[in-house]
Amino acid sequence: MDNLKNKKVIGFDMDGVIIDHSARKVALAKKMGFKIKRQETPSDIIKDLIPEPEYKKLQFMLYNDPKASLSSSLMSGVKPALSRLQKNGTPFFLISRRQEHGLSKKLLAKHELWPKYFNEENTFFVKEVADKETTAKKLGITHYIDDEQKVLDALVSVKNKFLFDPLEAFKNPPKYWRIKSWKEILRLI
């Protein structure tokens, strides 16, 4: 990775940045008896609205049940942005805390991202938030986009951190650059 020291090396989270689960979360919460709005679906917000046992059940269904997981949509603008990064030769990586790797790859393939943009060489599934930092440091990530502030807090080796907030759900100004779209991602990096 020494040859990448002076280059931008981009890291992306998967869920909430590449994959849009907001409609799916609203529907699953409704099935469980909770009424939430799309703006309340980011993990940093929804976890405070739904009691922990039910929230964990919702997360399990969302990320491990094929029917629920594979029905989530792609964030608008992902493909053109990744295509441009690829054409520019900008290295980029996916670092996700997804436990079910096979289902994650199927979801990426469904949206025509696997293996065209993400593959075995630039995709890393980790268990804990701290593992994202270890992986980002090893890869020399200079810019990272995530939808959770606690993840960005943990990425101490990454100089440029961006909070992806397409729903404008975070009312208080976050301590990181807030970006609302993939077009904005391209302008900033």
* Molecular shape: globular
Number of helices, counting only DSSP H or I runs of 4 residues or more:
9
**How many β-strand stretches?**
8
H-E string: EEHHHHEHEHEHEHEEH
- The CATH architecture of the largest domain comes to 3-Layer(aba) Sandwich
Please give a quick description of this structure.
By secondary structure, the chain is an alpha/beta fold.
List the helices and strands and how they pair.
Elements: E1 10-12, E2 19-20, H1 22-31, H2 43-46, H3 52-64, H4 66-70, E3 73-74, H5 78-88, E4 92-96, H6 101-110, E5 123-125, H7 129-139, E6 143-146, H8 149-154, E7 160-164, E8 177-179, H9 182-188
Parallel strand pairs: 1-4, 1-6, 4-5, 6-7, 7-8
Antiparallel strand pairs: 2-3
Overall description:
The protein has a 6-stranded parallel beta sheet with strand order 5-4-1-6-7-8. It has a two-stranded antiparallel ribbon with strand order 2-3. It is built from 9 helices and 8 strands. The longest helix is centred in the N-terminal third of the chain and has 13 residues, at 52-64. The protein folds into 2 domains: 2-19 and 74-188, 3-Layer(aba) Sandwich (Rossmann fold); 22-70, no CATH class. Helices cover 41% and strands 14% of the residues. The protein has 189 residues and is an alpha/beta fold. Helix 6 links the parallel strand 4 (92-96) and strand 5 (123-125).
